[in-house]
Design a protein that fits this description.
The protein has 385 residues and is of the alpha/beta class. Helices cover 38% and strands 15% of the residues. The chain folds into 2 domains: 60 residues; 320 residues, Glycosidases (TIM Barrel), CATH 3.20.20.80. The chain has an 8-stranded parallel β-barrel with strand order 1-2-3-4-5-6-7-8.
Length: 385
């Protein structure tokens, strides 16, 4: 009997100790078994004000690489007249040519950066009629499928490493069957991993994450209600967000990627990080602290697979100490990114082994209880490892 109780003490102790761990190795499901999730030290990149095939853009990408960026999301912007329109078209001032896109992809690859291709659609009045209001009618989906398949073929031909199949189409996301059809069609043209960029208030409502390889979130979560939060307050906010994401991740079992995250260098931007039109007073410290709080909280989470910071411009001289916009270029936060991106994550190599122990412990404990021995175990005798 003593031997049986000793075994039971150890089993229960293993259960408690393992359950106390804050991280467990996630078990990811993927339609593409060849896709191994990769942590992405990312940056979003757009061709404003210079085209992707300009010498200025080449220099800007070089400076990005010097900031230790490992993955770059290259954006291809298209438009439609309004949220009810069904026709998608290029815009002379904003849509890159395929040749310039190809140049930027090759330049990034030459600099040893991986590429996510991110086609995006806006309405002509993006302020009052944003993309999340796009209706998603049958005719719109027909146009969008053709649009995405064209870029999927382009991505395949140019060795793109990750393809984002949509961005912030919140009103359309409940059309689960149609989105699955689009994803299936895209996979006929592109063999690499896929993601989708959902908003902070819709990612939990998407029912087709199982068709993709990464959960993508444009992570403009509000952090505090203060213009001048401390770093500790920002960390507390991110801890709450991370806890919610981790709980939800246990349901979808997919690696989570921030397809966008960013902060303007303006006072109070932490309250509405998505707000790109507000007039803000310069505050480089708040931008720095918001980045740091996110990095400190998420860097070593086993379910989290990277940041794409918004936004790096094709002008190598963009940003600077007097700029209140999103770009980290030529600001203190650029050096913060360089420092963090120079290091690796510290994931416990024993997590997988510990998870196996958890399984064995539960099985053994269940057997022990079924044998009616558990009532001999006193709480004072249970020790943590």
């Amino acid at each position: 009997m003593k031997k049986s109780l000793t075994v039971l003490y150890v089993v229960v102790s293993l259960c408690l100790a393992t359950l106390a761990m804050t991280h467990l190795i996630p078990v990811f499901r993927s339609l593409n078994e060849k896709v191994e999730p990769v942590f992405q030290k990312g940056m979003s990149y757009r061709h404003l004000p210079y085209p992707y095939n300009s010498s200025e853009s080449d220099e800007s990408l070089l400076r990005m690489k010097e900031t230790n960026v490992g993955h770059v999301a290259i954006i291809a912007w298209w438009f439609q007249e309004n949220s009810s329109s069904t026709q998608i078209y290029p815009h002379f001032d904003f849509t890159p040519t395929n040749e310039s896109l190809k140049h930027a992809i090759q330049m990034a690859h030459n600099l040893s950066m991986k590429v996510m291709l991110k086609p995006m659609i806006d309405t002509e009045d993006a302020i009052n009629d944003p993309r999340w209001k796009i209706k998603g009618t049958a005719e719109w989906f027909k146009s969008y499928k053709a649009f995405m398949c064209s870029y999927a073929q382009f991505a395949q031909e140019n060795d793109v490493d990750l393809l984002c199949i949509g961005c912030e189409f919140k009103t359309t996301e409940l059309n689960t069957t149609t989105w699955r059809e689009i994803i299936s069609e895209v996979r006929k043209y592109y063999s690499g991993p896929l993601t989708y960029a959902a908003t902070i208030d819709s990612y939990q409502d998407v029912l087709w994450w199982d068709s993709l390889d990464y959960v993508g979130i444009d992570a403009y979560f509000p952090l505090t209600r203060k213009n001048d939060p401390t770093l500790e307050e920002l960390k507390q906010a991110w801890n709450r967000i991370a806890n919610d994401l981790e709980s939800w991740h246990l349901k979808v079992k997919k690696p989570i990627l921030f397809t966008e995250i960013g902060y303007r260098s303006g006072d109070g931007n932490n309250m509405e990080p998505w707000n790109w039109t507000a007039t803000l007073e310069l505050d480089l410290q708040e931008q720095f602290d918001c980045y740091l709080a996110a990095l400190l909280t998420l860097w070593d989470k086993t379910w989290f697979y990277g940041f794409y910071w918004w936004i790096w411009e094709s002008d190598p001289k963009a940003g600077g100490p007097n700029d209140t916009d999103f770009t980290p270029q030529n600001k203190p936060v650029q050096y913060l990114i360089r420092s963090w991106y120079s290091s690796e994550r510290h994931i416990d190599p024993c997590y997988e082994l510990k998870q196996k122990y958890l399984m064995y412990a539960f099985v053994a404990t269940t057997m022990a209880f079924s044998n009616k021995t558990a009532h001999y175990v006193r709480k004072s005798q249970i020790k943590r490892i």
